[in-house]
Design brief:
The protein has 70 residues and is mainly beta. Helix content is 13%, strand content 36%. The chain has one helix and four strands. Strands 1, 2, 3 and 4 form a four-stranded antiparallel sheet that branches. A hairpin with a 7-residue loop joins strand 2 and strand 3. The longest helix is centred in the last third of the chain and has 9 residues. It is elongated, with a radius of gyration of 15 Å.
Length: 70
């Protein structure tokens, strides 16, 4: 199993939805803007990475993550 740690800024507030049914699950989608470490010709560049959080992590994302937070 591989592990990845991404540090960036949130592009917008997480989009949170709940599944239907007896045991509903929280699903939070958000995008991180991660600055590139190596730049060409001094220009700042960023990669935009889509993330999905399920269950308890999705609820935490809904509560604490806001646009622009690192």
């Amino acid at each position: 199993m591989n592990k990845v740690i991404l540090m960036g800024r949130l592009t917008r507030k997480p989009d949170v939805r709940y599944t239907q049914g007896e045991n509903s699950t929280c699903i939070a989608r958000y995008t991180l803007a991660v600055n590139r470490r190596f730049r060409r010709e001094g220009k700042k560049e960023a990669d935009f990475i889509s993330c999905v959080a399920f269950g308890r992590q999705g609820e935490i994302a809904e509560k604490y993550l806001m646009q622009g937070t690192k």
